[in-house]
Amino acid sequence: MLAKYFHFEELQTDLKTEIIAGFTTFFTMAYIIVVNPKILEAAGMPFGPSMVATILSAFFGTMAMGVYAKRPFAIAPYMGENAFVAFTVVKVMGYSWQTALGAIFISGSLFTLLTLFKIRGWLANAIPNSLKISFAVGIGFFLTFIGLNETGIITLGVPGAPVKANNFHDGSVLLALFGILFIGFLMIKKVKGSILIGIITVTVLGVIFGLTPAPENIVSAPPDISPVFLKLDIAGALTWGFFAVILTVFIMDFVDTMGTLIGVSYKAGLLDEKGNLPEIEKPMLCDALATVVGALLGTTTTGTFIESAAGVEAGGRSGFTSVITALLFLVALFFSPFFSIIPGFAYGSALIIVGMLMLQPITELNFKDLTDVLPAFIVIALMSFTYNIGIGMTAGFIAYPVMKIFGGKGKEVHDGMWVLFVLSVLFYIFYSF
Q1: What is the largest CA-CA distance in the chain?
Q2: Regarding predicted confidence, which is higher, 102 or 11?
Q3: Count of CB atoms within 10 A of residue 327's CB?
Q4: How far apart are CA 369 and CA 102, in angstroms?
Q5: Mean pLDDT of 414-433
Q6: Helical H runs in 30-166?
Q7: Which of 196, 220, 230, 335 has its CA 20 to 30 A from that of 361?
Q8: Quick one: what percent of the chain has pLDDT higher than 90?
């Protein structure tokens, strides 16, 4: 019955392989259980409730992906989007996290409608590959910068030097540096779950050396989710002043989801002869609904994780891989005392490594075509140096068609890019600097 529902024979897989793949995906991406609520703490969201919201949204989205879409993809709150909310929307722009969740709910609702009407596929074809590459790389540098700050490796500088190296004799800084090297070593040796192992190891060392408190218990009932559950402020997000945030959240989720779905599907051999993913609306709908549910639960934008590729490489081909991963997220609910002691120098090291992993697409950029390279460079530079992902992405949507026109290549600009151009111009008109 199980094999028939998930098409094991058709996909040339079996129950044992799917279970192993599910575990592999979970241990590769489980760092999000710690890192997401830790990042959202910077926005004033309490760690425990935020962790529960993270886990439940991952469970809902991943289970839907497995049972409905029948794909071996896991869903959880996105890296990058959480940083945008915590460090840009709340800390820089001064909005509350409740209003930010309202924007995410609106974005998820729009995604759901666009998916049902199959408009997302049209917009996906509009964005050129060069900009997709720049988004991934820019977010990678942004996460790396945050990680360097959270670990204490760099700190605020003096006038004329915005940042500077911190005290390398400090124990937490030394453990952070060890964490980066240790995770890197595990990845070189192709150890599954390298990032999670690194976070746990550095945390344990922090306890041993007295740099972080030991937990009173390892296993306990999940924290109360009520401080973040249904606390979103939708009315506050429905203002022109907040248009830029909704637009940015919308675009970030759109780009991340498309890139991950196609990339992982390619590795899994799930694309058809035209290079398309059959019934792509199904995984897209799971992604959209997970974002809506996540906002209601109390967490940021959720979507398909690139770490799903680890489970695919372990042999996962059917939705049962996702079912196993989803169930493991539920189990993680009962280990909150351990997760709550994770220090910045442990999860910050993971952020730096994740940032590094997001740089790989730069090798696919055609540096011989300046009409591609210049908009991509603008995106990467502004994302990193303005400490604002939204500024970088929308600048790219404006620069790309303009550069193509100047270069006599206006015919290369998809009609949908002009829609994004107009939205980005509105971004700058209404954005609060």
Answers
A1: 68
A2: 102
A3: 15
A4: 40
A5: 78
A6: 32-41, 47-64, 81-83, 97-116, 119-126, 129-151
A7: 196
A8: 25
